[in-house]
Here is the input.
Amino acid sequence: MDYIIIGNSAAAIGAVEAIRKNDKNNLIKIISEEEYMVYSRPLISYLLAEKVTTKRMYFREKDFYEKNKVIKLLGSRAIGINCDQRYVSLENKEMIKFDKLLISTGGKPIIPGIKGLKNERVFGFTTWSDVDKITRISKEVKEGVVIGGGMIGIKAAEALCEIGIKVTIVELADAVLSRALDKEASHIIQNRLKEAGVDVITGSEVSEVTVKDSKVVEGVILKDGRRIRCDFVVVAIGVLPNIDIVKGTNIKVKRGLVVDEHMETNVRGIYAAGDVAEGYDSITGEDRPIPIWPLAIRQGRVAGNNMSGLVTNYPGGFPMNAIEFSGMPTISIGITDPKEDGYEIIKKTDIKKGIHKKIIVKENRIVGAVFVGEIDRAGIITGLIKDKIDIRDFKKDLLYGDLGLISLPKGMRMERLESA
Amino acid sequence: MKSVYPKEDVCMACRLCEVACVVEHSKSKDILKAFKKEYPRPLSRTRVEEREAVSFSVQCRHCEEPDCVEACITGAMHKNEEGMVLVNEERCIGCWMCVMACPFGAITRDEREKKKASKCDLCPEREIPACVFACPNRALVFEDR
Ligand SMILES: Cc1cc2nc3c(=O)[nH]c(=O)nc-3n(C[C@H](O)[C@H](O)[C@H](O)COP(=O)(O)OP(=O)(O)OC[C@H]3O[C@@H](n4cnc5c(N)ncnc54)[C@H](O)[C@@H]3O)c2cc1C
Here is the structure.
């Protein structure tokens, strides 16, 4: 029995740890394009800002692979899967046979169709090596433009700002973080960014990166004709499931790889997990990629269990994120800004103080929340969403005073405290 | 594994559990020094919730499958071999993913120096956790359930 895993990140680690609980001996082989041992992708902005050392980038201790008896093929790109003869082909022509395969190739950055992107001073922002490249030139540059005001773009901008680079963010939507947050929260964060010295241009688009030659960027031109001078550009408009590997196979694809409740694809013995997979969204009830670290771990674990014979169902998950933007702690969970009718909003907002707390309710169940400034015990809300708790009896209590378990009815509170 | 459980029917919100936790996690382990001389003062890792006549002290449940560990992007939050959920402060960067994930609200933000997650560690140097030991009403018990 050979377990083969393509990818060496969150989902892969979840899978290895699950497999090794059930099967101590059979071969596990990890194939990864990146040369690094497993590292935390969300930390790359901290690395750029010099807030973590390279040592702390690694998500597991050095002996992780040895301890778990994992053979690692790092710096090896997989280029195809033969589902019938059951092997993975690598770029170096090697063929790796498998009995059970996990595809956890993650996301890949969206590259917009903008002129001038093929330049040594245009960077992505999804890998450790992206940050290494930026760090290498960071002493020589003064001004940068970040294309994209989503989570990754803002993280990049903030880190650049911290190492003394003047940054302009260009965002297509009319507010930053418009997909993760709501108007009030975006507003608070946009103010914070401006205070920190980051220029934010919303409702606009970069139409061209102007270059001197393939090694020197001069600036960008926006759709409305405005020009911004800069020495480099970071492209951070989002990621898509990295599904290239399944081209030419029968593995079913929608936006990401389609999986059942065991994280198995339509081809028996081939599983998918993490940013590449269409996991079940337990709030909306649809299957879709939700590219966040905790769900990659969770899906990887479920896949690993099923691969090694312990039948486990994926309980589903929902989007959630916690970040600090210029010292402003922010949490967003589930549906944060519903556009249709049928939602009830409970909120407490003081934009001046930078405080915004909002809970979104549908049919007496919480389906989303936003916390800015005051985030303590926000997890209680996450728990109520996860367990689909009917909150009709204590709804108005939730944002009364401090958020706490004390808002829950006694029976429910006791049960929760006792059962963990 | 033994863990701390609150009993709200006998809690009177005296907050001695919080005091004991602060002292236990101070440098001096002396009540006066911990409160008067140590700056910044250690944080309590148990928290008394109180509204009208109801009160109870909440701390980490050391869950079987901890949501905080799953959510941690640095690997700081982990479950040790005995089953305790602990933070490796060297790794923690204060992103608060764990605060977002914990359904008990049992992880606090320690912003005294570097930002770190702070939570119950079951008092590694004691047989019975300080909060349980200090509670005059047995409103906190240390049991294997
Ligand atoms: C800057 C940034 C900040 C983020 N911040 C957060 C955050 O704060 N919180 C959060 O929850 N999430 C965050 N995320 C998202 C999070 O990083 C992802 O959800 C998570 O990394 C997904 O893990 P994964 O295992 O699915 O794949 P990935 O981490 O995308 O890894 C994919 C793996 O597959 C390998 N691979 C891909 N193609 C091939 C191939 N053809 N052959 C061989 N190997 C291949 C890669 O080398 C890599 O090892 C952030 C992401 C970025 C980029």
Observations:
- Residues A 6-12, 31-34, 41-42, 44-45, 77-78, 104-107, 125-126, 152, 155, 242, 245, 274-276, 291-294, 296, 321, 323; B 73 surround flavin-adenine dinucleotide (CB under 6 Å).
- The longest strand of chain A covers residues 206-213.
- Chain A touches chain B through 46 residues (CB under 8 Å).
